[in-house]
Design brief:
The protein has about 220 residues and is α/β, with parallel strands linked by helices. The chain is about 50% helix and about 10% strand. It has helices spanning about 1-5, 30-40, 45, 55-65, 70-85, 95-105, 120-125, 155-160, 175-185, 200-205, 215-220, and strands at about 10-15, 110-115, 135-140, 170-175, 190, 210. Strands 3-2-1-4-5-6 form a six-stranded parallel beta sheet, with helices on both faces. Helix 5 (about 70-85) packs parallel to helix 7.
Length: about 220
């Protein structure tokens, strides 16, 4: 991990997982039900295909089939729910603040790249006094679910804003889509295994390093 971070000019952090647990206080299953109810109202033909999911992102992806009007309505409702969720999500992930601050202290640029809305990321960072640590936030692109991770798009946008070559960036993420996005952008990746079985899965997906503790990232950066 230290060698990987030593070679990078910026550290990109996924939001939900590495920095906070978005739906800790407002369960994702409840948000999914809210979105399903909206979908049933404005696009009933699509609703049957989503009834089995408790993942708001799945409902969001499904709404794309209804065209821009339906997608925009679901996306707006999801964003509003995310903002409500982060207001009661609790403190940052253990070690996240140390990792963010260590990245800046090491002279590296810092950004958040997330499939969650930029609005909820900014709200959470502001609430927890982290806005000055994160230079760039790249959230869910409006009406373009196809550009969400595992697409490299968010990473490439962040790298451009920071003036850093994508190959000199490292993404910290807790999902396979994070690893895939980093690979597609030719960036490095650190898998954050925050649940049982994730370490093996992230390693098998090709993460350049894997950790179960965000403090490890802070310690590696402090040692550079």
């Amino acid at each position: 991990m230290a060698n990987l971070l030593c070679r990078c000019d910026c550290v990109l952090f996924d939001f939900d997982g590495p920095i906070c647990h978005v739906f800790e206080g407002l369960p994702a299953s409840g948000v999914a039900q809210e979105l399903l109810a909206l979908l049933a109202d404005i696009a009933p033909a699509l609703n049957d295909g989503a009834l089995a999911t408790d993942d708001p992102m799945v409902v969001h992806q499904l709404s794309r089939k209804g065209g821009d009007r339906v997608l925009a309505a679901v996306e707006a409702a999801l964003t509003e729910a995310e903002v409500r969720a982060v207001a009661i999500a609790g403190p940052p992930t253990l070690g996240a603040v140390d990792a963010l601050k260590a990245a800046r202290a090491s002279g590296r640029r810092v950004a958040v790249v997330s499939n969650n809305s930029a609005e909820c990321v900014h709200a959470y960072l502001s609430t927890h006094g982290l806005s000055s640590v994160v230079e760039v936030v790249v959230g869910r692109p409006a009406l373009r679910p196809d550009l969400m991770k595992p697409s490299p798009h968010p990473l490439l946008v962040a790298a451009t804003h920071l003036g850093v070559a994508p190959g000199r960036a490292t993404l910290v993420g807790d999902s396979l889509s994070d690893v895939q996005a980093a690979q597609a952008a030719a960036a490095g990746s650190i898998g954050f295994a925050n649940k049982p079985g994730k370490a093996e899965a992230l390693g098998a997906a090709g993460a350049d390093a894997v950790t179960e503790d965000m403090h490890d990232i802070a310690r590696a950066l402090a040692a550079i």
